[in-house]
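Most newcomers find our protein records easier to grasp once they have seen one. To make this concrete, we reproduce a full record directly below:

…
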Amino acid sequence: MTFEFDPVKSFDENVAAFKAHVEQLDPECAAIFFSTLETLTGDGNPDRARARRTSFNTAVAAALDALPDEDAGIS
């Protein structure tokens, strides 16, 4: 299932459509992604951008690690 931004729609409308699309694919991962996305927002300074990416990656990894193990109940 692919997603394409609609050039006729506004940026906010496209973002809302993208969010709905991703949530339909994987609600848990979408929640993690969108809850940590603001971490990447910055001022363009490359050193701070690198730190923000590290913070984002750390937060995503921690949230993924906290998800229940789907294979835990399988024997």
Observations:
- The helical segments are 11-25, 27-36, 46-66.
- The two ends are 32 Å apart (CA to CA).
